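Lab notebook: predicted structure, single chain.

Context: the supervisor wants predicted structures on file for every construct in the current expression panel, including those that have not yet been purified. This is the next one on the list. No modifications to the sequence; it matches the entry in the shared construct table.
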Amino acid sequence: MNQGESGRDAESAAAPAPETTGDTDDSASDSGGEQKQSSPDASPQQVLLVTGMSGAGRTTAGNALEDVGWHVVDNLPPQMLLPLVDVAEKAAGGLPRLAVVVDVRGGARFSEVDQMVRTLRARTATRVLFLDASDNALVRRFESVRRPHPLQAGGTLLDGITAERARTAQLRASADVVVDTSELNIHKLATTITDLFGEPDAPGVNLTLTSFGHKYGVPTDADIVADARFLPNPYWIPELRPGSGLDAEVSDYVLAQEGAGDFVDRFAALLEPVIAGYGRENKRHATIAIGCTGGRHRSVALIEELARRLASQPGVGVTTRHRDLDRE
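Prediction complete. Output recorded below exactly as produced.
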């Protein structure tokens, strides 16, 4: 998919015209090729205006922006845009990354958005993301959800789409990024938004590695579960019983057992293509669980060792949790 950057307004007429990309789906799908923008001027406040055609995927884009750390406000009346930015700048701690979804649902005053964007660009780092799609794709999406176009009134879907294109033409022309979502599904759109507006060093997939005791039940939120009960239980060694898998003596004992090192090696290798696939499918969070009998010794030691291995992989964030460590 292409990515394009457009001139911002008359003041930057030398900027190249935006191109578009492809995507599918109604309010759930959006996005197509876009072009990464250079980092905005250093500023305590970044503002991203998300706009475009109804049905082109603004909801999906907003959700993806939230996932990468933007504070998202959806369906904001245009006249509230400037006051919202004022509040965000003065908020305790600030809202340094503010994304605002503004579109024709805002009514007659949507025509004022162009002037508001010029005002914002004069005072803070502001970008405009415009989501577009072909007429055929938009009609298909509206028909699939059986909802009227916001500008359809008593006419047809195409009448509403035509009216919206006319109202948004100037805003599209001055957008920093235009994404054509005609051939994109919701996962591709979310990935595109993440690539464009996520933090460069942020992990692509955040893993929660949790130990647990089978006698207390398997974690209901676990995506992948493994069993550590094939290893000898330190509980039956008097000097190790009071400790946990966080203690060096217990951990060394568990990892020294036959099959323990092989298990960690192979489990970590098995997770590599899974984690890569999670990234491609825009699954940003996953829980990997290992259980033993009580959740105090074996599973804890293995989770800590697995975390050490996985944390060295690029694009992976790792958090450990020991659910049942203090139950015994």
